[in-house]
Amino acid sequence: MKLQNSFILREYLRPQNLPTTWCPGCGLGAIMSAIVQAVHFRGVDRRDVAMVSGIGCTGRMSGYVDFNTLHTTHGRAPAFATGLKLARPEMTVLVVMGDGDSMSIGGNHLIHAMRRNIGLKAIVVNNAVYGLTGGQASPTTPVGGRTTTSEPGAFERPMSLETLARAAGAQFYARSSVAHVASLVKLIERSLATPGFSMVEVVSNCHVLYGRMNGLGDAAQMTHAMDASMRRTNPLLAKRAALPLRLDAGGVGHPAASVQDAAIHRDTRLERGVIFERAPVADLSARYRAPRYEREEQ
Amino acid sequence: MDIVARGVYEIRLYRGLCKACGLCVAWCPQQVLQNDAEMYPVAAHADRCVNCKACERHCPDFAIEVVPPHPDSEIADVERLIHAR
Q1: Is the predicted ipTM greater than 0.85, yes or no?
Q2: Cβ-based interface (< 8 Å): residues of B facing A
Q3: Is residue B81 left, alpha or beta, with left meaning phi > 0 and alpha meaning psi from -120 to 50?
Q4: Domain A5-234+269-297 fold
Q5: pLDDT at position A226, please?
Q6: Whether this model's pTM surpasses 0.95
Q7: Is domain B10-83 annotated with CATH 3.30.70.20?
């Protein structure tokens, strides 16, 4: 089942703002379409949906959808969304973030939003690079991935959002990619049905900055590669990253360390689908408001 | 089992939204679409279309649409929607 594109345009988007400012072939458009369809099939009125976004390419999404939208500061979208959800508990609050936005700049806010387990629906678009600012390395750049700030290939271990969500106490976690758009709609629908904090990580393509520097081809080739496996490292460049690190090589008293020595070079394939789902826990959002109501009664 | 009909689907391309990224051409399983000289898609073999909507799903710009003979919803005038400021 797929909604007609003209129906999406008329009912759920702001067509006067289109075409989008995203690069041709960027997966964000397909993700926006999937979010809108999930909201439609879930049967939620668009006036009861709020979309909160931060800064970055993903942050621009709130300008195109015709929900209640909030375009906030860099990384602070979960903080704004927590406040909104406490003020309007009946509202479906979608938080749209990129990987740099959610994990490095807003990592603290994301962790505590997950710890409080208030019913936010986070959608993290993971394209392994800071797209808007010119292709800097992000927390999820895989080992060997070339970016403008890691020219010889990144050697740092990429961050696992899945492990973070599990540890911080999120209730639902799913992963899909822009090549699997139909499953993405279903996963977002399931996350909308979850009462607590739910997160859907979407592996997206940045073929303009990340793909070009890593020889991954154009948008079509990059999304086709995701179809087979969600690996995003060019094997040739990963081999180059396994060479001794430039800072250590040849230094006096410092043995040459390599990525392989540090045992952090591993398969970057990610599994797809619902990763974990926890039983519902007590909704604490009423507790946050309780003292104020008591004061009003006195 | 559904009967797969061919040649009854209309493929609409909205030039005002299209950015010529080539995703619809790459994902079409029936090779319905082809690139023209400017890399915009054209429905060269519309008779092969089976209404799988892979192009619609993968289009990031909502610029392509497969219209069945009896659509569930009314098909909006997209060009007019874009220019209504």
Answers
A1: yes
A2: 16-17, 19-23, 25-27, 53, 56-65, 67, 71-76, 78, 81-82, 84-85
A3: alpha
A4: Rossmann fold (3.40.50)
A5: 76
A6: no
A7: yes
